[in-house]
Fold this protein.
Amino acid sequence: MCGGARTSIRGERKAAGRGEGTHRCGPHTSEEWRVKMNGYERTPAERARGSQDAILQAQRVGQLATLVNAAPGAGKTHLTVRVALDAAARGDRVVVAAATNAQAADLARRLAHDAPRETVALLLGRTVVPPHNLRPLIAAGTLRIACTTAALPDAPPILIGTAARLSYLDSGRYGAGLLLVDECYQLTDVALSMIVALGQRVCLIGDAGQIPPVVTIDIADWHGDAPGPHVACPLALAYRHPWIQRLGLPVTRRLLADTVRVIAPIFYPGMQMEALHDERHRRLALTRPGGSALDRPLDLLESGRGMTLATLPARETGEVDRELAATLVGLAVRSLERGLAVHEGGCDTAIAPRDIGIVCAHVSQVAAVRQGLPRALCEVLVETAERWQGLERALMLVHHPLSGRASDSSAHLLSAARMCVMTTRHRVGCIIVARGGLADDLEQAPPIGAHMFGEGPDPTLAGWRAHRCLLAALAPSSTVVA
C-alpha cells in the first residue's frame, strides 16, 4: 500500500506498527474538517494551540525526556523559542542546541528579541561572522556573542550554539535545567551523547521527514543497529528508552490542504497531519493569460492544485539534463511574465523572484539551472534538498531526482526523506518536473537491498515505494510541457 511506504533509514515506527496514529484521509480544511478529541471536535487552529500547550505543560511538570515530532511548516522554531522563554521565566537555565550556525543565529535573534530582560548568549566558532541583523540586539545588551568558552558570561539564562560547539563545554559549569535540541533529526545519536549532560531534562524537537544526518565514516559495523551512533538521535533515544514522552505538532501552517492530502499518507503515515489553511484562504492567481505548454502547470496551480507534475519526453539523460534545467528556468520566467500572485487575506501580493525556489538532488543539476537563469532572476534560490531544509518559498520548482535516471537509481536518488523535503518547501504551489515514463521504469526495476536478506528496514525499498506512490497520486494532474 502507498500509505505504508514511509519506512526509511530512521527505522520502523513502533506506533505505526501498533496501529496508532493512522493517517486520516479526506479533505483537511480549517472550517469544514474537524478532529474529534476527548469527546468533542476541534478545528485545526484549536488543535495547533492545544499541541503547543501540551508540550509547554510537559516541561512545566518536569518531564525528563520529551520527543516532539512536527509536520513540515508546523512552527518548530516558534515552539523552541516558546519553550525556552517559558523555562527561563520559571528560573531554569536553558541550553539550546542547533544543527548549524545559521540556525543557532536565527534562534538567538528570536530569543533576544522576545526576551529583552534575559541575557541570551550565542556561542559561535572562531571563524564564523555573526549576521548583521544581530547587531542591534548586541548593542542593546540582550545578546552576547562569544567565540571561546572563556568569553562566555557566567551562568547565562539562555545559551545557544551548535551541538558540535556545545560539546566542548563543561557540564558542571554550564549545565542547565533544560536542554532543547532544535531540528533534532539532523543530529546523530553520538552527537547528542556529547551534549546530553548539559541538561537535567531534554526536549527534542524535529521533523521525522527530514534527510538523515550526514555520516562521513564507515558505518558497516553498525549496519542494522537501530540505536547505532549514526542514527538520528530521536530514533536511537526512543529505541533505548521506550518510556520517553512523545508529543506532536501535526498542524502545518505552510502547506495547504491539497498538498497535505498527497504527502501525508506517503511521508507521514503515523501522524494525523492536517493543514491550517486551504485554497480558499491562500492560493495562486494569474493576472495575464497564457497558451503555451509551460502555462499548463501554472493554470493547474491557479485552479487550486497544491502540487502538479510536469513531464518531458521519456529519455535517459544521466545526472545533468539541460532540457529539464531549461524547463525549470522557463517555468520561473513564465510565472513572472504572467503576473503570478498570492491571494491571501482578501488581497493579491505579486510574486517576485525571491519568492521562487528551485530544488535539485545534485550540485551539478543546481549549476545547470543557475547557468540558465537570466540576470533578472538572480534572486531565485537554486539549491540541493539538503540546503533547502528549514526554508520555504511561495512557489517551488522541483527537479525530480530520478528523472532520466530510473535505470541507475541509487539509495541517494530513491531517498524518501530527500523527496519529502523537496515536496514540502512551498507555501502555495509546487511543480515537479520529470521525464515521462518514470512510473513504468520504477515498476520494472524494484531495488535490491537489505529487505531481500531479512536484515530489517530497507531505506531503498521505502524510497522506491514512496516515489511510486507520489507519482500515482500526481498522475491525474500531470501535464506535458514539451
The chain has a mean pLDDT of 86. Residues 44-60 form the longest helix (17 residues). The chain is about 35% helix and 20% strand.
